[in-house]
Design brief:
binds adenosine-5'-diphosphate; 6-stranded parallel beta sheet; globular
């Protein structure tokens, strides 16, 4: 059996970074190098402040960084030395040509395939980890097949990642399943076996599924679609709850106890956040970015507070062409605050789109005192559920998902000038940076 001793992962993002850190942690005898074109991202992986926050990730990285886990910008050397190359680069939505605004742009994946074929010799297993449209492996293989070299033998596998934001390390250490797809040829099966051997060091064999390449690619997209459907369904029920007086949490509990339905992924919220929701146009994009877009389109001045994400990243995310056509407008409308109390000062409304517990412990009396009245509070993830009665007593006009809170509602008519809104965004995760 071919033994994988050295792994190179191209792309130190949300998928590549945590996945390869956990592989290195679980397999101390495998040498893992994560590479990226983005030097500041690599520097962050090599520092005390990792570019991604996930519970337990820092401990995992620190346990093996510099021993068998390395982060580097020397992409060619890492590819050349590796037995297995993961491609974990981003697949953004196309902004041009056919499929613009819908299809996944495979240009970064194809650039990796070209680089691999150029610098490699001998036998290597190339594995797509990024979420890709079905038959993306074909475009990798086509690049390999049309650039043959003597002694070069590149096998292509699909091994999609199913981690969820907030539980990435646990999902990687104790996955529900590991999916590996490859060719049905003897060569393909040999490559599958070699990758199975890596995972079998910590994942029970029964949880490692092997399929053909296309089933593997499609399973990832289908799983995302099913999860998105569940959230869409509970969000629709949530709207019904708001107009009928039912409480969506009670409804979710009641229907989730039916074993055919199950209780997971029945939490109503302001957006999908946390899974790739679009089949073939995969973006895990944060709902707080879209809420910000909506509010900016309405001319609202936003004061954003996030305990983890850097100001530059927040501004960059909001300046993406599909969020704001004019980056200057972002700098006019958006202020990033370093303190939640400062962000709420003089605001008409406070929008909470996070699940971070620290927001439960804020001094809401003080916040209320410094907001304009009526002071609106939009609890987009029902983080403050238990506090709603107290917050109402303080005087907040509360709106939440899936239940009526404030009954004697004062109609919201903004006073002169543009409303000032304060946003506490979602936790920082892959593409959840605001
Ligand atoms: P994902 O969520 O799929 O991990 P991210 O956007 O978080 O996506 O990360 C993808 C990473 O891949 C980025 O850090 C980007 O710089 C990197 N990347 C994209 N193209 C290349 C390439 N050709 N070579 C090396 N790194 C790349």
């Amino acid at each position: 059996m071919f033994q994988i001793n050295r792994i190179c992962c191209i792309g130190a993002g949300y998928v590549g970074g945590p996945t390869c850190s956990v592989i290195a942690h679980m397999c101390p005898e495998i040498h893992v190098t994560v590479v990226d074109v983005n030097e500041s991202r690599i520097n962050a992986w090599n520092s005390d402040t990792l570019p991604i926050y996930e519970p337990g990730l820092k401990e995992v990285v620190e346990s093996c960084r510099g021993k068998n886990l390395f982060f580097s910008t020397d992409i060619d050397s890492a590819i050349r030395d590796a037995d297995l190359v993961f491609i974990s680069v981003n697949t953004p939505t196309k902004t041009y040509g056919m499929g613009k605004g819908r299809a996944a742009d495979l240009k970064y994946i194809e650039a990796c395939a070209r680089r691999i074929v150029e610098v490699s010799n001998g036998y290597k297993i190339v594995t797509e980890k990024s979420t890709v449209p079905v038959r993306a492996a074909e475009s990798i293989r086509r690049i390999f097949d049309s650039n043959t070299k003597p002694n070069l033998n590149l096998q292509v596998l699909s091994n999609p990642e199913f981690l969820a934001e907030g539980t990435a390390v646990r999902d990687l250490k104790e996955p529900d399943r590991v999916l590996i797809g490859g060719d049905e040829t003897a060569e393909g099966q040999r490559a599958i076996r070699a990758l199975c051997d890596v995972y079998e060091r910590w994942v029970p064999k029964a949880r490692i599924i092997t399929t053909n390449t296309w089933s593997s690619e499609l399973s990832k997209l289908a799983a995302n679609a099913f999860l998105a459907q569940r959230i869409s369904s509970i969000n629709s029920i949530s709207a019904l709850c708001e107009s009928t007086g039912a409480d969506v949490e009670e409804v979710a509990l009641a229907i989730g106890m039916d074993q055919r339905i199950g209780s997971k992924f029945l939490k109503a919220s302001v957006g999908f956040g946390g899974v790739c929701v679009c089949v073939c146009v995969s973006h895990r994009e944060s709902s707080s970015i879209y809420i910000s877009k909506y509010l900016m389109d309405e001319g609202a001045k936003l004061h954003i507070y996030d305990p983890k994400v850097l100001k530059e990243q927040i501004i960059l995310d909001l300046s993406q062409p599909h969020i704001s056509e004019d980056p200057l407008r972002v700098s006019e409308l958006v202020t990033v605050s370093v303190d939640p109390y400062q962000a709420c000062q003089g605001a008409h409304a406070l929008v909470v789109c996070t699940e971070w517990d620290m927001f439960k412990d804020l001094d809401y009396e003080m916040i209320y005192d410094h907001m304009l009245k009526p002071a609106f509070l939009f609890d987009g993830r029902r983080l403050l559920d238990q506090l709603h009665p107290r917050l109402q007593n303080i005087g907040f006009q509360i709106e939440t998902i899936g239940k009526k809170v404030t009954t004697s509602r004062i109609p919201y008519t903004p006073t002169a000038g543009v409303p000032r809104i304060s946003i506490n965004p979602e936790p920082p995760t892959k593409k959840t940076k605001v």
